[in-house]
Specification:
Strand content: 35-45%
Structural class: alpha+beta
Radius of gyration: 15 Å
Helix content: 10-25%
CATH class of the largest domain: Alpha Beta
CATH topology of the largest domain: 2,3-Dihydroxybiphenyl 1,2-Dioxygenase, domain 1
Number of domains: 2
Number of helices: 2
Oligomer: single chain
Number of strands: 8
CATH superfamily of the largest domain: 2,3-Dihydroxybiphenyl 1,2-Dioxygenase, domain 1
Length: 119
Amino acid sequence: MARVVHFDISAENPQELRKFYETVFGWRFEKWEGPMEYWMIMTGEGPGIDGGMSKRGEQNMDINTIDVPNLDEFIQKVQEKRATIVAPKIAIPGIGWYAVFKDSEGNIFGMMQDDKEAK
């Protein structure tokens, strides 16, 4: 079964928003060393998911990301059910393959396939 494994939020002022989530919820943030300005968010121990935050403009939406075993296969499946591609499949180097979609009701979601060899 495919599960939501990651969430993304965006912010005009990431440092300010970071302070909000750290203070209110106790979340921890760690700067990602990838090709864009991005912070990994650790929300705690036990059940739940972690996420990330980017500067608004690089990504201008909040997204739940679903882990899938084969992104190409699932792209076909969601398109057959009237989902549309918002952002086509890209490699996130050393992480995997990622794409963003809009379902038939207008909800935005991402799908990710783990692949440490992705380039």
